[in-house]
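Lecture notes, unit on protein representations.

Consider one protein chain, 491 amino acids long.
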Amino acid sequence: MTAQVSVVVRVDGPAPWLTALAASLDAQTLGYDDFETVLVLAEPGGPTHDRVADFARHRPNVRVVTGELVVAEHLQGRWVVDLGDDLDERRPELFPQALGQLVAFGETHGCAAVLGRAQVRGRRVLDRLFARDTGELAADVLGSLTGPAPLIAVAAQVAAQVGTCPRLPDVPGAVGALGDHPVVLISGPVDADEQFRVAEAVGHWVDGTLELRAILDPPATPDAAPVLHLRHAKTYDELALPTRVEQDGARPVVVAALDVRAATADGPLPDGPWELHLVQPGDTSAWIEPAPVPPLPGPLPSAAIGGLLVASTRRQDRQVVDVAATAASVVGKVPIAAGSVAESARGSLLTLRLDDLSVLDAGAVRGQLFLGSLVLPVDLVSDGDSVRLQSWVSGLPATLPVHTRFGIGPRTATGLALQIDGDGAMAVVAEPPKPEKAVSTKPQPAPRRPSLTQRVTTRVPEPLRPAVRTVARNPYAQRAYRAVRARRAKG
């Protein structure tokens, strides 16, 4: 059966990157029947061959080829993805959707080859393919692509003619670019140019949409409006949204709108923290340094959009929108006047109004309410105009701090406490300060005498210490050492 894609991995030497790469291939959205991995060795035998053979033995779609790779003879896929020769430096890992996206894009647009974008570990840089999602790149663009090579998927019949890693101008046919998402994570130093910086920015929620207005330095022009670049802080997923340039007096202002419910072609923005940047795609440099949107003044309130919670927070020097409040909380400090307890036949209902939370549509989200060590269910309820926390509470006489948690987000303090009197009456009060820890008056124990192994190893040069440490743990060596010390003491 012909696979959709053949992944060529050239292994030379110990290949410490192979385990991580194999894990990323195992995580592909394509099944094992849809792609094959061909591990190419220059020479047979040796520890590298044994290690590679072990990978192939535990995976049904992995084969080992020794010597020169022949496309027609060794590869079974309709497409070929050759990871190249500099794997020790780049240490590539494929994103889970990489192979499926490359193949689907190439076949949909009738491409002879498809370029996929690369993401650099530890760097917020973008290559020139960012936001350039096209079925056929122009010749001048192909000639200007430099720096670490992106991932290339080549049709098998084309690879048989020009090789699995061809020069892009030599490809007989259209070369497309998958610019929406990165497909491979790589390492290596890169030189990136800063296009501009965000001099100032403001934002607010309007009908469930985050509207941003930014001033750039140097100023933006209507003919070169940047895009709003969103990058997931944990998964490296990226998204580009259009902007427009408006004139505010003598200053051009970049205006962007982020509707978290319809940000992607599939619908809502995926859960998690998203960093906000502005970037100009199609720059002449090989790598682009996106301009972070700084933390917005105010600060920007969090939002409850129906049953979806969106927390506003910051990450270093940039604004972050946390969809589903996975790393930040939408509930912050609550004033005492916003808290109340209502008694009814059903029990005591604690209500905390969240006046600072932006609201759109009615909905409810279940979370946890912490009263000291007691954990109770709590609902964040919005009616389209206001939002509040509601929880049925009970407890013994005490003053219990009120904390909340929603989803996998953090537990956060409201700054309030529930005061329960001896007769069962309840009231919302300010959370009392935590008592200072008493200074211990317990005498500190005398320092322990170094062990025999420590005393021996610290008397020899650093390079010899591992070997001496091993010898010092031998009971016969310890006995001999003590005998020598005893003779010297008598001496």
